[in-house]
Write a structure and sequence with these properties.
- The chain is an alpha+beta fold.
- It contains two helices and eight strands.
């Protein structure tokens, strides 16, 4: 799925032809000082994911996908499991997403590590952490 890397609504090519994209908007009352990416899951995982997260940021949904705003770079050293989709810049296919959850706190973000672990659990995928190599000492 092409998500594009533009700065707003645009078009990107896919196997089925041009696909309209949109950037998920951050509500004006919430500062997005860390930048925004989004993590999407098919709608069949939406309610389970939302109900099990201890902290929730902005959540958007359309007929097929649910999307959580996360700080930019939340894919660093993480392999998000399929069928989840990581969208840099919160640029997603334009299927008319709407805000379905406005956070009670002052942040638009869902903490990415609890979201990642929950998506791994729901999809039956072992978490895959990549990081700097560990030094081994001789014994």
């Amino acid at each position: 799925m092409g998500t594009g890397t533009g700065t707003g609504t645009g078009r990107t090519a896919s196997a089925a032809g041009p696909l309209a994209v949109t950037r998920l908007p951050v509500p004006a009352d919430l500062p997005a000082t860390l930048g925004c990416d989004a993590v999407g899951v098919p709608a069949r995982y939406g309610f389970r994911t939302l109900s099990r997260l201890p902290a929730k940021g902005c959540v958007y949904a359309d007929g097929d996908w649910w999307w959580w705003l996360v700080p930019a770079g939340s894919d660093l050293d993480l392999v998000w499991p399929l069928p989840a989709c990581y969208a840099p810049g919160a640029v997603i296919p334009d299927r008319g997403p709407r805000l379905i959850h406005h956070p009670d706190g002052g942040s638009p973000y869902t903490p990415p590590i609890p979201l990642y672990l929950l998506i791994c659990q729901l999809t039956g995928t072992a978490p895959a952490w990549s990081g700097p190599p560990r030094l081994r000492t001789a014994r």
